[in-house]
Structures are given as structure tokens and as C-alpha cells.
User: Fold these one by one.
Assistant:
Number 1:
Amino acid sequence: MSETTGVRLRAPQHRISRKAIPYWTVRALPGWIVLLAIEVAGLVLPANPPGAWLVVVIVVTAVVALVHLAVMPSWRYRVHRWEVTPTAVYTQSGWFDQEWRVAPLSRIQTVDTERGPFEQLFGLAKVTVTTASAAGPLHIHGLDLDVARQLVDDLTTATAASKGDAT
């Protein structure tokens, strides 16, 4: 624990929205569809078909895609967490490469909300908390839009009241 800030790295309390599971599934699906379409085109379009090895490649790709689409979104949902305390913002993210981050409120410089087309479709938003850290900003993905808006409001109020110069 830091003696000056009272902040320590720990597992954040809040989960993201369950809507993140279908959101991540839909986001991953186009890449697999394109890859499989290219492989199938390579099988059916040439005058001289490439042989059985491409069928094996297509089957393996399809199996890997199905496993990825079935496992990755739920796994990410179980890992992704966030929390704001009177002293800091905590995040935990990733699925293979997992990251825990903490940012003292006194170090926060900006708080932003972002919503891409798929996030808008699912009613989700991403909140980005930018600090003076060389590690870069903290991202909280998969929040319900209303939760994201409230979080931005709360962080804006808390950082305005925080003593510190955010550097």
C-alpha cells in the first residue's frame, strides 16, 4: 500500500454489463466469416482445386472459430471489472493477457466516453480515464450506457474535488 495515497492494487468490485458477451461475439464474428469465405473461395474457384488439405484447413478454421466465439466473450466477461473509490479508479481487463490497473483520482486528467457502431447497437459504452501515467489510459469496456454516463459524471466531480495537480 502506498503511504501517501492509501491506494493499493486489488480486484475491482463491479462487473461490466452482461450485454458485453453478445457484443464481443458479434465483434469477433466478421473476422472469422471473412477468413472462412477466403478459404472456401480458394477451394471452389480455381480451375485446379487445391486438394484435400484445404478442406482440412477449412474444418480446423471453423472449429477454432466456434471455440473462440463460444469461450472468449464469457471469459472476458468474467475477467473485466472496474471500481471507483474515494481515492482511485481500479480496472481489470483482458482474457489471455490480463491487466490490473489503478489510478489515483489526483492523477486523472481527462475522462471520456466512446461508443462505436456495435456498442451503440448493444447499448454499451467505453469509458477512458487518462492520467499522467506512462502506462497509458485506463479503459473500462462494456458498460451500460447509463452506467458509463454516471461514471463520467462521478469521476468528473471527484477529480475536481481531489487535491493534486494530475501530473
Number 2:
Amino acid sequence: MGKNRCGWCEASEHYIRYHDEEWGVPVKDDDKLFEFLILETFQAGLSWLTVLNKRENFRKAFDDFDFRKVANYDQEKLDSLLSDAGIIRNKLKVRATVSNANAFLKIREEFGSFSDYIWSFVDHTPIKNSFTDLSELPARTELSDRLSADLKKRGFKFVGSTVVYAHMQATGMVNDHLTTCFRYDEI
């Protein structure tokens, strides 16, 4: 007998693995938070599966998501990224990634870690929702609106409320597994 999962992940084995092992698990490590931030930036307007399928290519292209290195990318590196067929070659998103790495560093200076900053929006405790149907999952919330506005004020780009809410779901700030999903009570 198979496990009950959130229906959105059943399109591929890759998606199922992501759902079962990562989605909704609280992430407090700055390196991992930056990785998700990059991936969510590139996901804007596209499907998450598209980004997930290119994740390893992104990892190689963006120096294992090392925000310190990304913050110092020069024009030569940007040109190389824009010619890399293994990633999503969107000039605005590539430039935003460098800009976001610099904003990420500033938040670390101010708060000690990006994790302390972003998790303060949920009082450092995941919000556990109780949705029973995929149609109930919001694309954004008042909280993601607030966080999005604060990130933009701090210089981040491609962090609209929908992108921010997806980031909150991915990094476990909110548990949006359906109550019927086997991961709901595990997280």
C-alpha cells in the first residue's frame, strides 16, 4: 500500500522525493535558506518542477549556492551564467541573484544570521496549517505580504508575496502538507 501524499507531487519521482524529504522541513541554515531563495527567484513565473529538475545545474553554476561568492560575481561570471543552458537564463533573475546575495549579507550583518531574521516573522516556530484539500492552499498570505515588503525594502528582487510564500512552504516556516499526507505529523 502506497503512502498518502499531497497530490501536487505525484507528477514525477523527482517531485515525490522532494516532497517526502525536503518540502516543509524547517530550514534554519543560512546556506540552505540562500539556496532556496535562489531557486524560488528562478521559479517565479515557472513551475517548481522545472527548477527542481535543474537544481544540480544551478548548484554548479552558482558555486554551491555560496552567497559570499555570488555577492562578488563580476560581469564575466554573469555572462557565463547567461550562456549556461543548464539553468534558466533570465538576465533579470541572474542579476537579481547577485543583488539578493548582497542584501542577504547585509541582513546577516544586522541580525547575526538570515535565519534569525526570516524566522522572526513566525516567532521562530513553524505555522502548522490544517488543510484537507489542495484547493485550500493559499498562494500568498498577509504574513507573506509583510515579509515580501520587508525583503523588498532591504533590496531584494523577485520576492513578491507568492514567491515568498512558496519559500516559507519549502523551508518549513509553514507546514502546508495536507492533514491526510503522511508527512503532516512527521514535520
Number 3:
Amino acid sequence: MVRVFVTGPAGVGKTTLVERVAREVERWGYIVGGMITKEVRRNGRRIGFKIIALDTGEEGTLASLRGTSHLLGVPFGKYVVHVDELERVGVSAIRRALVEADLIVIDEIGPMEYKSDEFVKAIGEVLNSDKPLLAVVHRRMVDKFRPLGKTHVLSVENRNMEFGIILDEIMRELKAIG
């Protein structure tokens, strides 16, 4: 079973690559599910992260700067992680993808997301499934996932080439299984 893990420094284009692959896979008629994480910026400054369910477009707040949100959460550096929102939007999207999707996308598997026991459980369910997986893994956690699939380290120089390589890997797998 193909499991593709994408990692690299902040801002290199990991989420963009995953979104491009997901759109291309959908263009071929396959169902893509799961979640992506995007920065939330105000006046050019990052103030948090949101989660978006790929199947429904539903959004939630993953994290916000301490003191800037009415939502309660778990402290994490200068942010507060909103575990309830992660579970409501992200974990639900991952679990739906396990049932409905041809390709599961998870952006990102990282320390913030690991504040949720339900997220950790959902990752285990995905890894125990026979579904193809495309996931962004935070650089601090990549060694934990490296033995479980193929890891691609993105850079500004290689990101366009890696897009083609990753898309080919996933499309080969999807065509082989159905």
C-alpha cells in the first residue's frame, strides 16, 4: 500500500503540493478525503492555523495566538491548540475518508495535532487500513513515520519535480487497486 509522507521546512510548499496532487487525483475521477491545514494571517502576520475538511469544505480553528480567540484550548508555545475543533473537523474528515475516499490526505501530522488523542487514534486507523495515504509530516516527527512509507523532503528547488514523482506514485497505486 502506498504511503507518501511529505516533509520540509516551513513555507516550502508542502500544503500547496498536497493540494495540487489531491486536485489532480480528483480530476482522474478518484475520491479524495481527509484534511488540510492552512496558516491564518492578519496584516502579514501569522495568527493561527485553520483546518479544512477536503470532502465538505468545513473549516475549524486548529490553533490561534494565545489571547486572540474566544475558544478554549491546550497551550502550545505562543499558540493555543483547539483540540475540539481539530476533532470536529479534522478527525471527522479523516474517519469519513477511511470509509468513502480512494486517497486519504492528512496535512499535517505534527506536534499540535498530537495534542488530540482522537487525532492520534485516527492516524493509527489510517495506518492500519489498506487505503493510500498522502500526508505532510512535521520535520520533528518525520523519523517516526519514515519506516511506514516513502518520505519526500521538499525544497524550493525540488518541489515541482517532487509533485510529479508523488503524483505518479499515487496514480500507479490507485490504478492498480481499482
